[in-house]
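hey
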């Protein structure tokens, strides 16, 4: 089972790349941001606990996200498919808890894929992102506009801006990344598991380079029992 962490600042394209890699290779996509937003949408107790925190651009507590990931990684289907973690770990404390979680489940981290992009581009991508209110398809009014303004191409529902994509909050999230998440690059580099991709280019190019960096042809073949 392959376990890959996608690391990178808000707007680097972690969710976009995770979607294309999962479609191509059958990984389970574990996005802590998506899971937390769904809790908020459903009005659960957890959603009520984390909504103010998320809307301000701050991180939710380490124990909350670690428990979520532990639950997902423990599912049989996820264990069989291999996992792409998108948005976790995000602090050194989370990375340490993740190590324990993997060790206790007899699992190991294969790679950390670092997505790197220019800060101005990140801000443009974030503030221009729109998400379908029904099917959650992601658009971008600059880089991937819908056919009709404000309307989802896939299901026809209204497109909305994430509250944390307003410029002031997006800038706060980038600051939080630099302070609390960027130290993970050195944390994982010391183990020799970090591979880097220039995420400032077109989606297809980022996808192709990520496949090469991750050696995904090899991982995919091994998973299917065809590896040498
Ligand atoms: P989360 O949802 O994880 O947000 P994020 O990490 O800030 O990442 P984003 O979703 O903003 O960006 P992305 O890199 O996935 O980019 P995307 O592919 O969408 O977290 C949200 C909040 O949840 C946090 O602030 C925190 O409160 C909480 N949280 C989550 N995990 C946590 C944790 N572990 N610990 C504590 N708190 C946690 O792309 C962005 C836009 O750019 C899209 O419009 C897309 O279409 C476009 N785009 C992407 N790639 C390209 C490309 N190559 N070319 C052109 N456009 C592109």
């Amino acid at each position: 089972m392959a376990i890959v962490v996608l690391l990178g600042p808000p707007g680097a394209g972690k969710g976009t790349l995770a979607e294309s890699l999962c479609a191509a290779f059958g990984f389970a996509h574990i996005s802590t941001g998506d899971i937390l937003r769904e809790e908020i949408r459903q009005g659960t107790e957890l959603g009520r606990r984390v909504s103010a925190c998320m809307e301000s651009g701050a991180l939710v507590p380490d124990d909350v996200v670690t428990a979520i990931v532990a639950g997902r990684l423990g599912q049989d289907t996820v264990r069989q498919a291999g996992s792409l973690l998108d948005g976790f770990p995000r602090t050194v404390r989370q990375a340490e808890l993740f190590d324990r979680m993997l060790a206790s489940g007899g699992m190991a981290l294969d790679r950390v894929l670092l997505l790197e992009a220019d800060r101005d581009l990140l801000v443009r991508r974030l503030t221009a992102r729109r998400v379908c209110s029904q099917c959650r398809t992601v658009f971008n009014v600059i880089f991937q506009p819908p056919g009709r303004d404000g309307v989802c191409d896939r299901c026809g529902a209204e497109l909305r801006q994430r509250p944390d994509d307003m410029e002031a909050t997006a800038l706060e999230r980038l600051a939080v990344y630099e302070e609390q998440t960027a130290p993970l690059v050195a944390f994982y580099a010391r183990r020799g598991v970090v591979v880097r991709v220039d995420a400032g280019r077109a989606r297809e190019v980022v996808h192709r380079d990520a496949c090469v960096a991750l050696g995904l042809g090899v991982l995919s073949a091994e998973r299917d029992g065809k590896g040498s």
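The domain at 3-117+181-227 is CATH 3.40.50.300 (Rossmann fold). The pocket of BIS(adenosine)-5'-pentaphosphate is lined by residues 8, 10-16, 32-33, 36, 53-54, 57-60, 65, 87-88, 90, 94, 125-126, 129, 138, 140, 143-144, 164, 173, 202-203, 206 (CB under 6 Å).
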